[in-house]
Design goal:
The chain is of the alpha/beta class. The protein is built from six helices and five strands.
Length: 160
Amino acid sequence: MMLQKILIATGDSPESSQILKSGLMLAEKLNAKILILHVLNQTQNSFETMGNQFMGGSYPMMNDLAVQQYQQEWQDREQRGMELLQSYAAQAKEHQIEAETSQNFGDSGVMICETAKNWSADLIVMGRNQKSALSEFFLGSTSNYVLHHAHCSVMVIQQT
């Protein structure tokens, strides 16, 4: 099996650099192209901020300030994601690896699988978050979703 196109799925965690390094090492050895993907998921932190801003604490009515804070947080997360991708692309360039970047919006597992399929990736390199057993049971995990829905092989990097 020839691995010519590797999608590296990164996130906001400090462990993402470990995932990138593993993907870069593999791409360098195989002379493969990479796509570095960062997915922004609306449900991560933004809704917590919005939820804390309900007027009176119990009414589902938000004031203008809460909406502005939500929009600012979202723009900040977009900007941080783009800066992260630029930094990762520069690292790939240092290794003479042809790299593309993409920041997508939506459910992480779904976006990773869709992007990999649309880009015709041969392999997905991603991490596995350390969720509690209860959290993983109710919410599922991104890596588990990708393992069961990706059109190509998946390499999961255990994060310590």
